[in-house]
Structures are given as C-alpha cells and as structure tokens.
Design brief:
- With about 160 residues, the chain is α+β, with helices and mostly antiparallel strands.
- The protein has one domain (about 15-140): Beta Polymerase, domain 2, CATH 3.30.460.
- It is about 25% helix and about 20% strand.
- It is globular, with a radius of gyration of 15 Å.
- The relative contact order is 0.19.
- Belongs to the Iojap/RsfS family.
- One of its GO terms (biological process) is cytosolic ribosome assembly.
- Pfam families: RsfS.
- One of its GO terms (cellular component) is cytoplasm.
Length: about 160
Amino acid sequence: MSNDTPLPSGSTPQTPSDGGNSDIYALNADEVDTETLARDIAGLTWDLKALNTKAIDLRGLVSYTDFVIVCTATSDRHVQAIAKHVQNSLSEAGYKPLGIEGVESGQWALIDFGDAILHIFNGSVRDEYDLERMWPDAPFLELEDGPDDLYGHFELQKL
C-alpha cells in the first residue's frame, strides 16, 4: 500500500517490526472487510519481493474462505522470509492465523487467516499445484502497485 492511501476511520498505520515497509492498519479483524485483508496480504508479499502475486476472489464460490492469495518465492529462505513477514505484520495488527503449514520445508507455505489464505510457492512448485486453475469461474482481485506493474514481469529460470 502506498503512503498516500487514506487510512480507514479509526485506524493508525504501524510499521512491521521485521523490516517491512507496508502500512498495516491497527484495526480489529471484525472491522476490516476481507478484500482489504487480501490487498494487505498481497502488499506484504511485495515488501519482500514476492513474484506474480495473485488474489483469487472466492466469495460465494466456497464456504471456507473469501480469498486465496498466491505468490512465488525464489528460494527456500525467500519462502520462509515472506511467511514470517506476513505472519508477524498481521499479528501486530491483531490477526492471528488459524493455521500455518509447510514453512520449514521452504518449498511451499500456507498461512490461513480464515477469510484469506496465503500460499507461498518456491519456483516450479507453484506450477505443480496450479491453484489459479482450481476455480475457473473465480475472478482475480485487481491488485495495484505490485512489482509486476512497477518493475515488469519476472520469470524464474528453470534449471
């Protein structure tokens, strides 16, 4: 999120303690709509240069979440760093994950915040799971100011 984005009523920006630069709003989780949460998660992935971040809008299509956010990391450590940054930043804003899986392996990580679930994939693992095609009728949330828009699209080289 950019610094010129107006704050929602009754909120104050916080700087994450793990070095990120996203504005996280100190709101009660009940006061934030799920679309804002999905956008905030996407922004947090960009703080650590995640690639090809997408937010799949599943509202009305599934009962267990509203958004699935998917991004690509460039290494095992990158997966772990993105997961830690998102978890720490949202915890500081009052969000507690319902579940965290896979972080230790560095190949794939999942952080479930209930209304939004983040999947972080290392390289070609994302292609294997192909989550974007699981819901062919689901629209993608338009995300602005991501690295693809600012710096061009990055492709990982397969070895």
